[in-house]
Structure prediction request, 426 residues.
Amino acid sequence: MIPRFTRRHALQVLTSLGGLAVSGGASPTAPSGGALRATQAGGLPADQSKRWKGSALGNLYPFIKEEQQRTRQRLAFLNRRPKDLGAWKAECREKVFAALVYRPAPSKPGATILERVDRGDYIRERLTFQTAPSVTVPAYLLVPKRAKLPAPAVIALHDHSGLYYWGKEKIIETEKEHPVLIASRQRHYDGVSYPAMLARHGYVVLTIDMYYFGDRRLVLDEDLERGINDHSKVESQETIDQINDRNGKAEQVIYKNMIDAGITWAGVLAWDDIRSIDYLVTRPEVDPRRIACTGLSVGGFRTNFLAGLDPRIKASCVAGWMTSFRNLLPRYESYTVPAGWPPGLLDDLDYPDVGSLTVPNPMMVVHGWQDTLFPPEGVRAAFNTLAKCYDAIGKPERFQTFTFDGPHKFPLEAQQRMMAWFDRWV
Prediction:
């Protein structure tokens, strides 16, 4: 049997590409040595000569694309040019929350500290807290030991990468780490735990398991019957690979049934992340006036929504996920995870328009020009949209891009620039 080419495999290929180059400001440029090329799965160049342009949607592409192009982003800042920024944000946020269709009953965080580990420069707490009456979220909290308290805080949002077996551990330093976890961090973060770097620098850092990942990953009856995947032990690499592959195939099934149940995956993510702020502000070590957020890949997707929807986020850094959704068709359909876009929202707001709801709070965006998960023209369009929004309010310095000639990752230099960005604005 030919093994399935998953998103995880794609990212493994992508991270073998390219070195680092710097591009500052809001106007992205192509890497030296040639023009950017749109690509499909496996890095194949776009073929505009094909009848349906090589789209994975085939003969269904024209209908879906036509419907997408009918959308007008009616509430976008650049279309509305609002005089009352506060009223515009309130209207847009209400539209977004309505599209997310996930608003559980209020509940107190009710946190339980499960473990405290002294890591030298910081204390690492393993804990759980509630984001809804029946939803318990596992998390790590890093508390700096030498910072003046209350300290600024960062919500660090982990990536997807097709690695479902772990969530928060992808970016949090732990003891006796599995080789698969170490390899993943090397590919996506240059081997660095950026939450640990932030904690050593004086930030309180919170990281949760995203829905469907880590301790919240899919576990089936057959797993328990086989005595695997029950969180009581760490599995072999072979078993972990099997779980990741199975859970990747099941992603669309889970998404379909969430929609059928009347909620969206994106709504669950946004709600959990907002409720993470609710927990953070209960901690005496945290200055509630100085909270930032950052993340790679789907963590960047979550960062964009969290910064746009919650004014308590004072600065943000979106890594490896910034594009206009209008540019995804054709050629990039296969790379949008189920959390991708709330149904119907594109008629009101595009993806960067949601991010623009954070203005005048600062936003930084990191992107590698060899990242084949997003169309270069879509990335440029998003950059231009955000830059024009900040220009329009007279604060162009509060939007910054950092681009490099490399793949889908959050390289060390970008992490360091993120920390300097937070130092400046938080």
